[in-house]
Amino acid sequence: MSEVQSSFQQALIGNRNMEDTNKFLTKLKGCYFANTQLNLEFLENLDDFEIRDDDVFIITYPKSGTVWFQQILCLIYFEEHRKGIGNLETVERIPFLEYFSREVDFAERPSPRLFTTHIPYYLVPRGLKNKKAKVIYIYRNPKDVMCSYFHFSKKLTASATDNFVEFMNLFLEGEVAGSLWFDHIKGWYEHKNLFNIHFLMYEEMKKDLRGSVLKICKFLGKELSEEDVDAVVRQATFENMKNDPRANYDNKLKAYFGIQKKGHFLRKGTIGDWKNHMTAEQNEKFDMIFQTKMKDIPLKFIWDMNEE
Ligand SMILES: Nc1ncnc2c1ncn2[C@@H]1O[C@H](COP(=O)(O)OS(=O)(=O)O)[C@@H](OP(=O)(O)O)[C@H]1O
């Protein structure tokens, strides 16, 4: 029997019936994936996927800055993207492993191959665990992740509730694509010694984009001129990306999420938007869970200091 189980979310039921809810998520080896454009067959056989020394993986929990980092990496790696010559979308240059990739032949792609994925550490190809390729893990204040996810689910997909309290419960139960935020980041952090991995915070990129780009270039062994670094930073700002059809995913949204849904991947792009959503009580509950779940993880979390 296949390890893949279709699942449904009890808590989502609300005004929808079970048949509707059950088509939005698929559970594979304990992790939920969104059904939209999911390349399930590839995902099921990912363990054997051959890794090259110069492969680079962007790994994120959803809504943590994935699309932003795709743009940054495209600007670093592809001169024509940086110079605005090519109009290939970032997701074509740095495809997702598990989404929108049914037509992509990864084995045929020239090196260095760049990938994007939301998968938990335990689903990665075996070959990645011997430090062959490079991994960049982007993380973000989970309260902002949750709020971003709430709007994304509500506006862009039909998969979740319109009610923030309900969504918070789903998020804290891991009943969303990507499963539990705490498990995702802990899994990657606790197994970091298996990988050639660099952890980077969304908030750090926001506060010092240029410094973050330089750090990433160093990790990747990419030497860019001052002028090229300027071009990367200029084109990776929120304002620029919103108007850049190569980077804003609007085409994908139209194609896959339907025109009746309103909204953009690039919604607000700020630090601390959770304060506009969460009550003091909800915040306290979240903090308690965070402290319990993350107590052994010495990752730097700067988001409570000097927020915008
Ligand atoms: N350039 C730039 N600067 C700052 N913030 C940015 C940028 N690009 C994307 N974003 C914000 O990232 C949030 C979307 O996260 P993801 O790209 O990880 O979403 S997804 O998982 O791929 O669906 C989403 O956050 P919210 O605005 O809080 O919803 C995007 O607006």
From TrEMBL:
It comes from the Eukaryota. GO terms for cellular component: cytoplasm. Keywords: Cytoplasm, Transferase. Its EC number is 2.8.2.-. It is found in: Cytoplasm. GO terms for molecular function: aryl sulfotransferase activity. PANTHER family: SULFOTRANSFERASE SULT (PTHR11783). Belongs to the sulfotransferase 1 family. This is Sulfotransferase. The gene is LOC128778153.
